[in-house]
Specification:
Blueprint: H1 2-23, H2 27-74, H3 84-101, E1 105-113, H4 115-122, H5 124-141, E2 147-152, E3 155-161, H6 166-181, E4 184-186, E5 189-191, E6 194-202, H7 209-225, E7 232-233
Helix pairs in contact: 1-2, 4-5, 5-6
Length: 235
């Protein structure tokens, strides 16, 4: 850039402008060459600034694209909730934290009841509506510090740290079930779904992340097949 400015100065000013000043016989010729130098300087300025601005825009767009790629790698594209990758990462961190502080944590496995029938009858758009509504219900009901992840299909996993009172956890599960089962509507069609929920506790049931989810999943299926039982925990 410095070299380019030096060349412009030498050509436009030293070689032309001052030479013209020494030879000019009228004010008009001086003014004409002054305008010429100004024009050259403006074009030189544009030539320097335009690539710099383009490079700046490219860097900004690249950073945004990289941020979006990182977000998509750790979040579900439909609900914008954490996906399995981020869930396991946060669960590992939560277990390490609970171990250091002699704390408890709970993993809830949630499966929607009646989702397949809605998806088959009203189509995938209605199914997507139910899933996003499910994500909104969970986000509204749970704390910001809890992790809500879409595990796959119509399955969700919730990670709750600092569990002290099991009865409060059970009350929370009942509240989640009530929120999810609240009637809603999609394009004039009434929609009602339920939820089967099972949970597992650290460290009572296991200290391993994979096993916590597996036990909560098993407890969820027991809840699904035993509707008279309001809550099912891991064994």
């Amino acid at each position: 850039m410095v070299t380019l400015l030096a060349v412009i100065w030498e050509f436009a000013v030293e070689d032309n402008f001052f030479a013209v000043l020494s030879q000019a016989s009228t004010s008009e010729s001086v003014e004409e060459h002054l305008n010429y130098v100004i024009t050259v300087a403006v074009f030189a300025f544009i030539a320097l600034i335009a690539p710099t601005f383009t490079l700046y825009k490219y860097i900004c767009y690249r950073d945004v694209a990289e941020d979006q790629a990182r977000h998509l790698a750790t979040h579900d594209s439909l609900t914008n909730l954490p996906n399995r990758n981020l869930l396991y990462d946060r669960l590992d961190q939560a277990i390490a934290h609970a171990h250091r502080h002699q704390d408890k944590l709970a993993v809830m496995f949630i499966d929607l009841d009646g989702f397949k029938a809605i998806n088959d009858k009203l189509g995938h758009t209605a199914g997507d509506f139910v899933l996003t509504n499910m994500a909104a219900c969970l986000t509204k009901t749970l704390r910001e510090t809890d992790t809500i992840a879409r595990f796959g299909g119509d399955e969700f996993v919730v990670l709750i740290g600092g569990v002290v009172n099991i009865s409060q956890l059970q009350i929370l599960i009942q509240k989640i079930k009530m929120e999810i089962s609240a009637p809603t509507e999609f394009e004039g069609h009434p929609i009602t779904v339920g939820a089967s929920i099972g949970y597992a506790l650290y460290p009572e049931h296991t200290t391993e992340a994979e096993e916590l989810i597996s036990k909560a999943d098993k407890a969820m299926y027991e809840d699904k097949t035993a509707p008279a039982s309001p809550l099912v925990t891991a064994v």
